[in-house]
Amino acid sequence: MSSKGKGTRAERELIHMFHDTKTWIALRAAGSGSTPLPCPDLLAGNNIRKLAIECKSIKARKKYFDKVEIKELIEFSTIFGAEPWLAVRYDNEGWYFVTPEDLEETKKGNPSLSLHVAMKKGLRFPELIGIFKQQKLD
Amino acid sequence: MSSKGKGTRAERELIHMFHDTKTWIALRAAGSGSTPLPCPDLLAGNNIRKLAIECKSIKARKKYFDKVEIKELIEFSTIFGAEPWLAVRYDNEGWYFVTPEDLEETKKGNPSLSLHVAMKKGLRFPELIGIFKQQKLD
Question: B119 lies in which domain range?
Answer without folding.
Answer: 3-128
